[in-house]
Amino acid sequence: MEIIKIVKYRTINPKNVNSETSPSHILSKEQLNFYQENGFLIINGLIDFESLYNLKKRFIHIAKGIVDKGQMTVVREPALVAKGATGEDVINKLQDIHYDDIFSTYVEDPRLLDVISQLIGSDSIVAAHSMLINKPPGTGRHPPHQDLYYFPFRPADKIVAAWTAIDHVNKENGCLFVIPKSHKKHGLVAHSVPSDSNKLYHGIMDESLAPEAERVHLVMSPGDTALFHPLLIHGSGPNVSKNYRKAITCHYASGQCHYVSVQGTVQEPVAREIEAEARRRNFHIDFVDSWRYKNKLVRGVKSNL
């Protein structure tokens, strides 16, 4: 196995820069090259403690029913539901949080958008999908997968995920793992729901593409932010600790992206699943339109999405 040197970078925050015309968090050439070569990048301490505290407090208030969830989807961990867990102890994640007044402060954080714009090469940025992930004790693994499996828009190089640790993240509580350079090796591969995994999660059907020996585990501190390409194979382990593993994440796309048909591709099964779930909720909407409905322009004035 080739050894990948994992470095937690800090961005350059120059003085006397006009924030309207220039990014205030500038990635170095080394950082950009690392991301392009390996498919991921970690920036140390990008998000401050006060912001993280407000995000955590918002989640707890929603979990306790103090604040209405609005249009967000509350996803509960089936194994913990079966054990009778409630509240914060049973919620795996909140989905589609980018329209919430508090969670949107992360999704639209200028520091984060500065970094995103440099990775996707665009000043027009759309928030496509967002989550507050709680991962309480007893939560199972998230099998290796590629995020592009869920997205009916391209090109892939114009899409990037940001994943920020709210709590300390380590192997015991189920940190992320990545397969470096996998974004350039396989293209988009077939996914299914593994028999030993949460039914909420899809994973690559051929897990030999994510061998244990090649998994790089991302141990992170609060405020550290991982950014990764949508074709990068990644996942997370089970939370076998006694602590939560909160993180917040958003997938961004360039406003220059365009929708594609997934009919006859490896994505068709998930498209049918999403359409069936929409019908169950009395929404008659197709796969592409479900993404048009959710997308939010967070920088720039025009988007194809």
UniProtKB/TrEMBL annotation:
<dbReference type="Pfam" id="PF05721">
    <property type="entry name" value="PhyH"/>
</dbReference>
<protein>
    <recommendedName>
        <fullName>phytanoyl-CoA dioxygenase</fullName>
        <ecNumber>1.14.11.18</ecNumber>
    </recommendedName>
</protein>
<dbReference type="InterPro" id="IPR047128">
    <property type="entry name" value="PhyH"/>
</dbReference>
<comment type="similarity">
    <text>Belongs to the PhyH family.</text>
</comment>
<dbReference type="GO" id="GO:0001561">
    <property type="term" value="P:fatty acid alpha-oxidation"/>
</dbReference>
<dbReference type="InterPro" id="IPR008775">
    <property type="entry name" value="Phytyl_CoA_dOase-like"/>
</dbReference>
<dbReference type="GO" id="GO:0048244">
    <property type="term" value="F:phytanoyl-CoA dioxygenase activity"/>
</dbReference>
